[in-house]
Amino acid sequence: MIGVIAVIGVLLAAVCLLGHVALCTHRAATAADLAALAAADTARGLRPGVACEEAERTARENRARLVSCAPAPEDPEIMDVRVAVDLAVGARLLGPAYGVARAGPPPSGSAGSGS
């Protein structure tokens, strides 16, 4: 009986760990998307500031850490961003969850552009 309870406890802990990792991965992806959008808007002059500083601020507001931020080689208005979200203390051996995103102006001639 104690063995069954121990196995159930281990399985429950594993499910909780997987759920936590999934949540942090989703948070990292969302933070990366928002940080890339903020950086791209700043790079295009749609908002004041420095592009990567805005990306860092946006990542921090979404409980993430900016790992890298750079304009794309093919277009300085396209921003590539990478963020990290640290896992809880019990899951830190797995390392942080990362999110990567790219944002920039809409393609010319796209639907909704008014042309």
Structure overview:
It comes from Rothia kristinae. This is Helicase/secretion neighborhood TadE-like protein. InterPro entries: Rv3654c-like. This protein has one domain. Helices cover 46% and strands 23% of the residues. It is built from 2 helices and 3 strands. The protein has helices at 2-43, 51-61; strands spanning 65-72, 75-85, 97-103. Helix 1 (2-43) runs antiparallel to helix 2. It is elongated.
Number of strands: 3
Total of helices: 2
Residue share in helix: 40-55%
Spatial ordering of strands, largest sheet: 1-2-3
| Major sheet description | 3 strands, antiparallel
* Average residue-wise pLDDT: 91
What is the first-to-last residue Cα distance? 71 Å
**Low-confidence parts:** none
Q: N-to-C SSE series?
A: HHEEE
Summing up helix and strand content along with how strands pair, one would put the structural category as alpha+beta
Portion in strands = 15-25%
Rg result: 19 Å
Shape: elongated
The domain tally reads 1
Organism: Rothia kristinae
Protein name: Helicase/secretion neighborhood TadE-like protein
InterPro entries: Rv3654c-like
Descriptive tags:
three-stranded antiparallel β-sheet; alpha+beta; 115 residues; 2 helices; Helicase/secretion neighborhood TadE-like protein; Rv3654c-like
